[in-house]
């Protein structure tokens, strides 16, 4: 008997889930509220259809090689960082390649169980990078400290933001300094009379471009660096990280972050430091309260004549389509086994993409879907509910129940993806590769941990994975070859010697990590 699976949402997590179901011989039906695929990445000007979509100018924070589906690289001519239009085009290519659209029902506004579709399992993609309808809800803190009763100006959540036109010539306060808050403050500074950015936490700012011009995630997210983080004391790795971040500019001078703080977040924004330096954005502490036309801050200062307050304060995930008896089992991903499974007696429900990683959430979501569909198909096994609950309680950290603090819950990208890959039986072995394919092993260990690594072995192995890994830098540089100049560097001639020197270290790291794996939990790492 073929098991039927209901997939809620046709964003990137939903598309990956449908494909994984088909790979495992399951029968998926995807229910999508809107008329098209793409989830939040399908931009729309409308804010009245209860959909969350990206704003017009958004660019991805993770590069194409680090964010693609593991058996479907981005086209070579696509830039490393993508606008929403190209990312949506890529999703369409993926859906066509694997014939996914015929399994999707569009414009479904009711719970699937009311459509007479009794599915044996449910996959609930909750987002890949940002929340997806119907499982999101904008978070407005403490109903905004009197803003609803006293403030006479306009206030809105970033969910409603599309472009700058409505803010031209106005004095704007942006509350929240995550990636979205930083982006919107910079963008608004080009047209607004003044922009204030309120931050409640220590925030480190980095760039998408590394010191040598490559995508920063391809340079920093490597198994070698992950091994060093595992090997060295956490206090030392944090100190090294802070020094590296401060090498761009001193964050304490800008009021952004202190090296003495144990709680912090890292955001990606190339323009914010210049905006602060030029005064087009003014950084302020946390808001204490609002008056009719002013904001009063925790340090006692205030800013008058505020026209608009824009909250970039995150989302909560109520899952209104689930019954209360199921919803009560988890309040966020920390209540889920491996951030995926509620501890039910039968594994018939999985939440895909409700994670915060130091790398691409799309990659983590696809790995989750591969593991989950293997469980549904009977290839992968889960421990008893009591053991799952024990692990959940053991790993659940004591943190504030505030969506704006979720940056502190970011898990190591490689730590988490390796953990899920091991559950799915698709984690690559560096030691085995060193014995069978040394060139590939060195690329896997010292090169970027691209998604193709999880297609080298196990169920769903892809013949093209090796070639994709060995040509990933070519695809990264190809879009830049619009004007070619001579390069007199001799870095390539040093590569064989570097490989020889690195071989003993790769052997040692592969052995130690196989014997003593480090869990994927912890504050932001690897940037």
Automatic annotation (TrEMBL):
Asked if the Swiss-Prot or TrEMBL record annotates the protein with the keyword Signal, the reply is no
Q: Which GO terms describe its molecular function?
A: flavin adenine dinucleotide binding; N,N-dimethylaniline monooxygenase activity; NADP binding; trimethylamine monooxygenase activity
Membrane topology for this entry? Single-pass membrane protein
Which top-level group of life is the source organism from?
Answer: Eukaryota
Cofactor(s) named in the record: FAD
Chief place of localization: endoplasmic reticulum
Q: Where in the cell is it found?
A: Endoplasmic reticulum membrane
Please provide, in alphabetical order, the Gene Ontology terms of the cellular component aspect for this entry: endoplasmic reticulum membrane
What residue spans carry the region label Disordered? Answer: 111-131
Q: Which InterPro entries match?
A: FAD/NAD-bd_sf, Flavin_mOase, Flavin_mOase-like, Flavin_mOase_1, FMO-like
The record, for Pfam families, names: FMO-like
Q: Where is the composition biased (Polar residues)?
A: 121-131
Which keywords appear in this protein's UniProt record, sorted alphabetically?
Endoplasmic reticulum, FAD, Flavoprotein, Membrane, Monooxygenase, NADP, Oxidoreductase, Transmembrane, Transmembrane helix
Q: Where is the composition biased (Basic and acidic residues)?
A: 111-120
E.C. number? 1.14.13.148, 1.14.13.8
Please list the reactions this protein catalyses: N,N-dimethylaniline + NADPH + O2 + H(+) = N,N-dimethylaniline N-oxide + NADP(+) + H2O; hypotaurine + NADPH + O2 + H(+) = taurine + NADP(+) + H2O; hypotaurine + NADH + O2 + H(+) = taurine + NAD(+) + H2O; trimethylamine + NADPH + O2 = trimethylamine N-oxide + NADP(+) + H2O
Coiled-coil residues are none
Functional summary from the UniProt entry? Broad spectrum monooxygenase that catalyzes the oxygenation of a wide variety of nitrogen- and sulfur-containing compounds including xenobiotics. Catalyzes the S-oxygenation of hypotaurine to produce taurine, an organic osmolyte involved in cell volume regulation as well as a variety of cytoprotective and developmental processes.
Which family is annotated? Belongs to the FMO family.
Tell me what this protein is called.
Answer: Flavin-containing monooxygenase 1
- Protein source organism: Smithornis capensis
Gene name in the database record: Fmo4
